[in-house]
Amino acid sequence: MPVKVLVTGPPSQRFSLDPVSTIAQVTAALVALQTHVKIERDAKGRITFLMEKKPTKDTLLKPLIKKILSFLP
């Protein structure tokens, strides 16, 4: 429903960001984008899941942390 309101409603004059929500969403997005899930089924039909999260590269992390800190008062 919120997407429908955004599409059909008038354009917003201002978009405010809550620093805590922004940090939480960026962190969740980073974790999700770096997570690899492998699903396998063996001969007996059993399913196994392997979840791996690769470490974040410093070249990505440093500018991101600076940007996040700039949102904080």
Task: Describe the structure in brief.
Helix content is 49%, strand content 19%. The protein is an alpha+beta fold and 73 residues long.
SSE layout:
Layout: H1 2-8, H2 19-33, E1 35-41, E2 47-53, H3 58-71
Antiparallel strand pairs: 1-2
Notes on the protein architecture:
With 73 residues, this protein is of the alpha+beta class. It contains 3 helices and 2 strands; from the N terminus they run ααββα. A two-stranded antiparallel ribbon has the order 1-2.
Series of secondary-structure elements, N-terminal to C-terminal: HHEEH
Main sheet? Answer: 2 strands, antiparallel
**C-alpha-based Rg, rounded:** 19 Å
State the shape.
flat
- Regions with pLDDT < 50 over 5+ consecutive residues? none
Tell me the domain tally. 1
Averaged pLDDT, please?
A: 79
**Strand element count:** 2
Query: Helical percent range?
Result: 40-55%
SS class: alpha+beta
The N- and C-terminal alpha carbons lie at a distance of 32 Å
Strands of the widest sheet, in order across it, are 1-2
Strand share of the residues? 15-25%
Count of helical regions: 3
Features:
single chain; 73 residues; alpha+beta; two-stranded antiparallel ribbon; 3 helices; 49% helix
